[in-house]
Description:
Elements: H1 3-24, H2 28-53, H3 57-79, H4 81-86, H5 92-113, H6 117-140
Helix pairs in contact: 1-2, 2-3, 2-5, 2-6, 3-6, 5-6
Amino acid sequence: MNGWILAATVVLAVGLATTLWGVATGPLGRRVVAQNLSTAVVCPGLLLLAQGYGRTAYVDLALLLALLGPVGTLVFARLLADELAEDPPRAWGPTWATAAVGAVVVVVLCAVAGPGRAMVKLLIVGALVVGGNLIASRALAGGFAGVRDRG
Length: 151
């Protein structure tokens, strides 16, 4: 076991244990936030596993998850808008912590990969993970000002 696989194990174990606890307990708001954060935790874990095992297919899987995860959260936010409006979730601490983990993992892996196609792919995955997580969390917390009134 090398350091990359150990780091991936720590990220996945801590992140998924936390999100599993959030999904299994608590009100609706906590459950949808935990579902959103699970995607933001698994993507950096997959990137670390890709580096540890030397398999670029894991980066492709992280890219796919970074694209589809926030979209799923936005679907939940839309379908559960009435229930979430009564008690909107406020989880900016875990959201920013998860975004920071994703950003740190991407920056470290970009430094290791060096300039080239792999670095561009890592930066795209990082931007999608961090940006998608923040946008989806904002949508769960009540959306953006003026958008809800237009529907």
